């Protein structure tokens, strides 16, 4: 079992969301940063969403396609993880 309590799940979820927002440019413009941080931002869905919503994307269709791919990947991963017959303890 990966996570043992609801509190641990909430903490992990908050950490992942915060790191994604930081890397995706939700808190500060990521294009002004240099080095590895800029390239790491490309792997987050937040980067593509912020680029689409801010209107800075030259080709917004690419942003939408990337977001759809992220959605499909997350759905497939969820189906694989939660489709198994496993017992989840209630904490």
UniProtKB/TrEMBL annotation:
Keywords: Membrane, Transmembrane, Transmembrane helix. The chain crosses the membrane at residues 9-30, 61-82. This is ABC-type multidrug transport system, permease component.
């Amino acid at each position: 079992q990966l996570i043992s309590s609801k509190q641990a799940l909430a903490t992990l979820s908050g950490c992942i969301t915060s790191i994604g927002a930081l890397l995706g440019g939700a808190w500060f413009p990521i294009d002004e940063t240099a080095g590895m941080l800029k390239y790491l931002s490309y792997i987050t869905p937040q980067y593509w969403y912020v680029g689409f919503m801010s209107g800075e994307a030259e080709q917004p269709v690419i942003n939408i396609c990337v977001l759809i791919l992220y959605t499909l990947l997350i759905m497939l991963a969820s189906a694989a993880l939660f489709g198994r017959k496993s017992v989840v303890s209630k904490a």
